[in-house]
Amino acid sequence: MADTMQFDLVSPERRLASHKVVSVKIPGAEGDMTVMEGHTPTITTLRPGVLKVDGPDGTAEYVVSGGFAEINASGVSVLAEKAIPVGEMTREDLDQMIEDARTAHETARETFKNEPGPVDDAAKVLADMVAVGDHIRLSSGAPLPG
Amino acid sequence: MANLKDLKNRIASVKNTRKITKAMQMVAAAKLRRAQEAAEQSRPYTERFNAVMAQLAASVGGSDSAPRLLSGTGSDQTHLLVVITAERGLCGGFNANIAKLARTHAQRLKAEGKTVKILTIGKKGRDALKREYGDLFVGHVDLTEIKRIAYSDAQGIARDIIGRFDAGEFDVATLFYSKFVNVVTQEPTAHQIIPAAYEAGEGDDAKADTGAVYDYEPSEEAILADLLPRGVATQIFSALLENGASEQGARMSAMDNATRNAGEMIDKLTIEYNRSRQAVITNELIEIISGAEAL
């Protein structure tokens, strides 16, 4: 059996997972990364995306948004502002998240008229959000709208 | 001596009061359990978040490029007091204690010649401070409609506060809320959130020891800039939860006291009632006997 490491996924409202895993695929702000036992200690921020956990008892997927992941010798801790198991994710949750991102984008566009930075960031979050929707709808086999 | 009918009515009314306080106590106990659970659930997140922030703050904090949410505006002229209280009363000295702490704080700051602004969360705190500091209010957050505090509520408040900070409305923000120690003890607490004060190694054992040098992706500064606003939301969220648990705890013990007092009062009134009833009977007997003797 492959080496395992401790994995914790916590959101402000609850602890979603805390167990041994083989690998974790983290949607980092600068690209996805897969973490396995013995990874360099790293702190990365998250972009909205799907976190994939490979454990000895199968895989699990979570939709995460906002927060960061801390990787050190003792394991991986993911602190996400929003974390929902893919199976529990509903249309409403997704729509809500996309809506929030859209509002944030609008606000950013109005407040930072002359600074492209924050606007681009918000636009990226929005795009990521939509991509998450596409991804999980494909992977969960839910019917496409329309 | 009060007449019998009055006493009887009085007893009935105190009994009703006792029923109500008893019911409130039980409701508070149930809510307390839920509030405590919520507070407990959020603890792992808050603790780790703070640990990582402390680490980041320690390594970046000293430099000039540190974000303003961490280093401050360089002045401490204008203070924003964020006073978190309950939406409802009947919970003993809970709201009054928070308001009192905020008031002493405001007085001290004013004596030092600072400008004070107040943002209230929860109706009771606004009512308590309105008469004295009504002109300092800059806003109010209404949580009456919210049954269960969600992280998004805290995010909303944090966004509002950070917006004001960015607009230069204040230099220092302090949260006032009640820390939940146990069911009978709640501690009114002041906690500074802007500029953020993260203390290294506060009760966190393993993190400090590993002493690992982290890779940062993106850069340390970028991560810090991303996380600081989230930190404000996290602090507010945990304060809201602590406050919620404290409120229910305070209400529970207040209602427990009230129930006990009502019980004592009923006992006293019952004795008085019995005595006067007996007095009336004795009186009647005396009248009859002396009437009979006169014949």
Please, could you describe this protein's structure?
The complex is a heterodimer of chains A (146) and B (295). The longest helix of chain A is centred in the last third of the chain and has 25 residues, at 116-140. Chain A is 32% helix and 42% strand. Chain A is built from two helices and eight strands. Chain B is an alpha/beta fold and 295 residues long. Chain B contains seven helices and six strands, in the order H-H-E-H-E-H-E-H-E-E-H-E-H. Chain B has helices spanning 4-60, 68-71, 94-111, 123-133, 151-166, 206-210, 220-294; strands spanning 78-84, 115-121, 137-141, 172-180, 186-194, 215-217. Chain B has a five-stranded mixed β-sheet with strand order 3-2-1-4-5, with helices on both faces. In chain B, a hairpin with a 5-residue loop joins strand 4 and strand 5. In chain B, helix 1 packs antiparallel against helix 7 (220-294), helix 3 runs parallel beside helix 4 (123-133) and helix 5 (151-166) crosses helix 7. Chain B is elongated and about 110 Å long. Chain B starts with a helix and ends with a helix. The A-B interface holds A 8, 10-15, 28-30, 33, 40-45, 66-68, 70, 72-74, 77, 79, 81-82 and B 38, 41-42, 44-46, 48-49, 52, 56, 150-151, 154-155, 206, 210, 212-218, 222-223, 226-227, 230, 233-234, 237.
Strand fraction band of chain B?
5-15%
Helix content of chain A: 25-40%
**End-to-end gap of chain B:** 31 Å
The portion of residues assigned to helices of chain B is 55-70%
Helix/strand order of chain A, N-terminal first: EEEEEEEEHH
Find the structural class of chain B using helix and strand composition.
alpha/beta
Strand order of the largest sheet of chain B: 3-2-1-4-5
